Every structure is written in C-alpha cells, then in structure tokens.
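Quick one: structure tokens for this chain, please?
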Amino acid sequence: MVDGNIEASAKLRMPARMGGVKVVRRRVGIVWFVWFGVVAHLVGGCASSARVRVQADDHYRLAQSYLSNASYILAEQEIRKALTLRPDEARYLECLAWIHQAQVYQAQGTLNLTRLQLAEEAYRMALQQADAPLSVWVNYSTVLLLSGRPDEAIAMAQRALQVPGYDQPARAYTNMGVAYLNKGTFTQAAEHFRKALDYQANLPEVHHNLGIAYAGLGRRTEAIRAFREAIRFRPSYVEAHLGLGNVLLAEGRKDEAQVAFERVIALTPGSDIAVDLREQLKSLAP
C-alpha cells in the first residue's frame, strides 16, 4: 500500500512539475522575444537617426560651399533642407544666419534691414541650443553692431571670451573695439584693438581701426603708424590710405598726404571719394 501511495503521489505530482517547466520556458521565450524586439527597434532607430544626420550634414556642407561662392539663394535652399531634417542643430542655424548676414550690405553702403533682422533671429535660435558653438556669440555681436546696439554687442563678445578654450579671441576683441569706437570712447577702443593684435597681428582692419582710435585721441604719430601697418598687410586698403592722408595733412605733411590721396584715387578712380580728393589736391598743389 505504501508503494501504491507513493506511486499515486508521484503520478499526481509529475504533471504539476512538467507543467511548471513548460510555463517557465514559455515565459523565457516571451521575454526573449520582447527583448529582441526592443533591441531591434533601438538599432533600427539609431541607424535611421545616423542616416538623417549624414543627409543633413551633406546639405550643410553644400550650403557652405554655395555661401563661399556668394550663391546665396542656393545656399539658403540647402541649409533649409538640412534644418528640415534637424531643426534644432545650432550649426545649421548659424549657417542660415551667415547667409542672411552676407546679404546685409547693399549698394551705396546701405543696409538690408530685413536680412539683418533674419540674421538676428537665426542667431537667437542657435543660442537656444545647448551645443551652440562659441562663434555664434561673436557673429551675433557683429549683427548687433550693424543694428547700432554697441552695448549689447560688447556683452555678447564678452560671453565668448569668458568661456575657457575659446580659440578666436582676436575676433571678439575686434568687435568690442568697434563697439567702443562707435560709442566714441576711443581709449577703450584702442585698448581692445591692441588686445586683438596681441592674438593676431596680421589683421589689416584692426590696424586701420586702431589708427582711427588714435586719431580720435589726437595721437597722430601712433595713428600714422597704425594706418601704415594696415596698408602693409593690405596694399589696396582704400580706407587706410585715406585715413593716413588725413592724419598726415593734419600734421602739416602735405607732400606725404598728397601721395596717400593719389593712391586712393588710383584705387577707386570713379568713386565720390576720388572726386572730392581731386578737388582737395588742387589746394595742396604748390
């Protein structure tokens, strides 16, 4: 009887154990199937994201190429394609701002205010992104200068300089110098232009602006030196020749001033400046 009970008990327990094994196996199979689906989805999503990034970068590079060739319409078309794929990419927004900014200057020295506003909007959107390049701060400060907002331009350039590792301090100091020059604070302007030249000494525009600042301070000898440095780095720099001539004339060095003015006329023979200088040269003739 005992053996019979044991055998009966075993018969009763066996299905339970086998059923339990089958349930466990089913559960493991289901979990594995679900996990495989998650991994496949993640891998597929990453691959898709990578493809989108590559496509967007292709449009971005093409936009940069068109921009360098002054093909602004094509450049804008390409960068907008990139932004359609990745609307929050700071580099693309900055490129869009460049395209607008490149079209700000018009004939006779006037500004396209619509393009100026569009450039500012693109820079603002770029700055809202966590990965915004530091160049955005300085480029935005240039737009603020063109908009006649020197104090905001100074603050924007300072933000870039405060970040460790910023690798273009000459640009930031130049924009700050121009802002102070526009404000008529020539001492601060000269100080920032000198700092810019400490980082990069071969910038003709900075030497020219430093000459203007020195001239505003009545430091004519230093102004002459600065204008001549600008000309040394860019012999065809019309504004530097003109600035040099004006300071030399103020110093009473008429012969040297005449040479500088004649150089301006030779570089821009049909300009209004050339017309005025021809009249001025008549008064300098012995």
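The chain has two domains: 1-127, 202-286.
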